[in-house]
Specification:
The chain has 13 helices and eight strands. It folds into three domains: 126 residues, Orthogonal Bundle (GROEL, domain 1), CATH 1.10.560.10; 194 residues, GROEL, domain 2; 89 residues, no CATH class. The chain is mainly α.
């Protein structure tokens, strides 16, 4: 077993902080639309020029083990941000460096590290909420182009290209970025794990078969693998396979069959009552109905092509994230409006009814109004039935009904209160 160099306390923190600063200082020069490029030496071929923060972070390896550990932690921040959002890796690196620096100062001054960690968690929640409130929704194609232009280092052609691609395929479509001239690979056959599980996997395989003009090979359908013929296979102009996703471009399926499948999925979405099933059906619908666009990046040299491809990738990911965020906020606001505009009516439970009677009696005894001085009963009849308009919180609607009881006008004992369109009142209530 190799010997280990062990460091403690301040010495360990300072060595790791030094490594963090080395990596973050190299990455932060690429921040924002005015960021500068970084030249990376390669062991073979021409050097690589890039403005992508995560690419710079992945290329840094330090000789000192403790400094390298600090650099690896920040590299993980950039890599995770790239996996989730696709962009913003430089911003994440700068924020992580600042958090570590200020946290190190606080710990050195005697602050409890766990209290510091809890404070950071609370601050993150507040900052994320503030950013969500300050975010601006993207509504037009011009705004999409502006986001792409800023993320593409001020290149307007990149922004327009991305806006055109998103306009053609929609927010749910697939957009890939390629180099204009690439060498052909020798891959002829690739095995890809089928998506989903159980019955949902079978349905998604049927979607792929319809999209490519093929046929699902399954023993459930009476078809064995040894009996498969070439006429059962599907075709596509291109199939792009990555670690997480497989993209089928320009499948050979018949248009009327694809449209029929889309209509079938839409009908299933309307019929299902499960939010989870509805979400999965909408994902399948987006994959069938959404288009696929390919952006080919060209240049005079290989170095220029790779540098521009990095910029287009960042711009595309930033634009897609902005569009998806705007769509989610729009969906949430629509759900809130629907919930507030369509209240459900349901009877009040006995214990709530008793509470309502007691509250009404108490309010009438303490605060008789000029409109109902004596005709308002001190206790409601036991046979009185209630219907509360519940929106989001039954307790709040219960209080609302109590407030309505205070302002009921004086009527004869045989008259029932009628709810109006503007002021909902409990049904079948004797006054």
């Amino acid at each position: 077993m190799a010997a280990k160099d062990v460091k403690f306390s301040r010495d360990a923190r300072e060595r790791m902080l030094h490594g963090i600063n080395i990596l973050a200082d190299a990455v932060k020069v690429t921040l924002g639309p005015k960021g500068r490029n970084v030249v990376i030496d390669k062991s073979f071929g021409a050097p690589r020029i890039t403005k992508d923060g995560v690419t710079v972070a992945k290329e840094i390896e330090l000789s000192d083990k403790f400094e390298n550990m600090g650099a690896q932690m920040i590299r993980e921040v950039a890599s995770k941000t790239n996996d989730i959002a696709g962009d913003g890796t430089t911003t994440a690196t700068v924020l992580a460096q600042s958090i570590v620096q200020e946290g190190n100062k606080a710990v050195a001054a005697g602050m409890n590290p766990m209290d510091l960690k809890r404070g950071i968690d609370l601050a993150v929640t507040e900052v994320v909420a503030a950013l969500g409130n300050a975010a601006k929704k993207i509504k037009t194609s011009e705004e999409v182009a502006q986001v792409g232009t800023i993320a593409g280092n001020g290149d307007e052609s990149v922004g327009k290209m991305i806006a055109e691609a998103m306009q053609k395929v929609g927010n749910e479509g697939v957009i890939t970025v390629e180099e204009a001239k690439t060498a052909e690979t020798g891959l002829k056959i690739a095995a890809v794990k089928a998506p989903g599980f159980g019955d949902r996997r079978k349905a998604m395989l049927e979607d792929i078969a319809i999209l490519t003009g093929g046929q699902v090979i399954s023993e459930d359908l009476g078809i064995k693998l040894e009996n498969v013929g070439l006429n059962m296979l599907g075709r596509a102009k291109k199939v792009s396979i990555s670690k997480e996703n497989t993209t089928i471009v320009d499948g050979a399926g018949k248009k009327d069959e694809i449209q029929g499948r889309v209509a079938q999925i839409k009908q299933q979405i309307e019929e299902t009552t499960s939010d989870y099933d509805k979400e999965k059906l909408q994902e399948r619908l987006a994959k069938l109905a959404g288009g696929v666009a390919v952006i080919r990046v060209g240049g005079a040299t290989e170095v220029e092509v790779k540098e521009k491809k990095d910029r287009v990738d960042d711009a595309l990911n930033a634009t897609r994230a902005a569009s998806a965020s705007a769509a989610r906020r729009k969906s949430k606001s629509r759900k809130r409006r629907t919930a507030s505009m369509t209240p459900s009516t349901r009877p009040v439970r006995p214990w709530k009814k008793a509470s309502l009677q007691a509250a009404a009696s108490h309010c009438c005894a303490l605060r008789p109004t000029s409109r109902s001085p004596a005709s308002m009963p001190t206790r409601l009849p036991a046979s009185t039935s209630f219907a509360v308009h519940c929106r989001l919180r039954p307790v709040r609607s219960l209080r609302t009904q109590v407030r309505k009881l205070r302002s009921l006008p004086a009527r004869s004992s045989t008259t029932r209160a009628r709810p109006t369109a503007t002021t909902p009142r409990p049904a079948n209530m004797a006054t």
